[in-house]
Amino acid sequence: MPGWQRFYEENASKGIEVLTVAMDAQGAAKARPYVELAHGTFQTVVDAENVLGGMYGFRAIPNGYLIDENGVVQYEKLGGFDIRKPETAAIVNRWAEGEDLAAPQDPKAEAKDGPSAEAIALFQKGLELYKADSVDEAMVLWRQGFALDPDNYIIRKQIWAVENPDRFYAGDVDYDWQREQTAKGQ
C-alpha cells in the first residue's frame, strides 16, 4: 500500500483516483491496520464475501484495472499487479501520463464456469457458515473448493489466515511461510 499511496499523492493533481479492495473473509477490522500503517488517503473497501472473485474469476491478488475518465478499461492484469514491480510501475505511470493503453486480454483470466466457479461457490457457502460461527464446517467447504482449484490463492489465503492468524495479522505478513506452504501444496 505505501507504493500506491506515493503514486496517489504524485498524481492526485491529474484527477487520478485510486481504489483498493482488500479481500478478507474476516472483514474490515483485519485490513484496517494495513491501511493505517500506509497512511492511506485513498479509498479502500473490503470484499469480505469474495463477490469480485465470483464476478471476475479472481483466483489471486493483487489484480489491477486502469480505467479512464469515461469508464473504459485501459488495462487489466489479474494476479501480480504490484506497483513495487518496475514493469507494473512503468505501465501505471504511462497511463497516468495519458498514454492510451490498449486493454489487453489478460491470459490469466479464468472462465467464470468450470472448476474455478465451483470452487468460488463452495467458498461463498463456506463464508455463510463462517459468519454463523461454524468455522469447522466452513473450513471443510473451503478445503473442497481449494481441492477443485488449487491455484486459487484467494481461497488458500483465507484458510491460512483463519488457521494461522499470527502469520497475517500480527505485524508483517509472513510471505516466507506462505511460500513454504505453497511448496507443500497446502
Are there runs of 5+ residues with pLDDT below 50, and where? 106-111
CATH class of the largest domain: Alpha Beta
| Shape by Cα distribution | globular
| H/E series | HEHEHEEHHHHH
Report the CATH architecture of the largest domain: 3-Layer(aba) Sandwich
Strand content: 5-15%
Stated plainly, the CATH topology of the largest domain is called Glutaredoxin
In the residues, how many domains can be counted?
2
Name of the CATH homologous superfamily of the largest domain: Glutaredoxin
Largest sheet: 2 strands, parallel
Tell me the number of strands: 4
Number of helices: 8
What is the C-alpha radius of gyration, as a whole number of Å?
Answer: 17 Å
| First and last CA, distance | 27 Å
Q: Taking strands numbered 1, 2, ... along the chain, how are they ordered across the largest sheet? A: 1-2
What oligomeric assembly is this protein in? single chain
Q: What does it look like?
A:
This protein has 186 residues and is mainly alpha-helical. It folds into two domains: 95 residues, Glutaredoxin; 69 residues, no CATH class. It has eight helices and four strands; from the N terminus they run H-E-H-E-H-E-E-H-H-H-H-H. The strands form two sheets. A two-stranded parallel ribbon has the order 1-2. A two-stranded antiparallel sheet has the order 3-4. Helix 5 packs antiparallel against helix 6 and helix 6 packs antiparallel against helix 7. The radius of gyration is 17 Å and the shape is globular. 21% of the residues are buried. About 3% of the residues have low confidence.
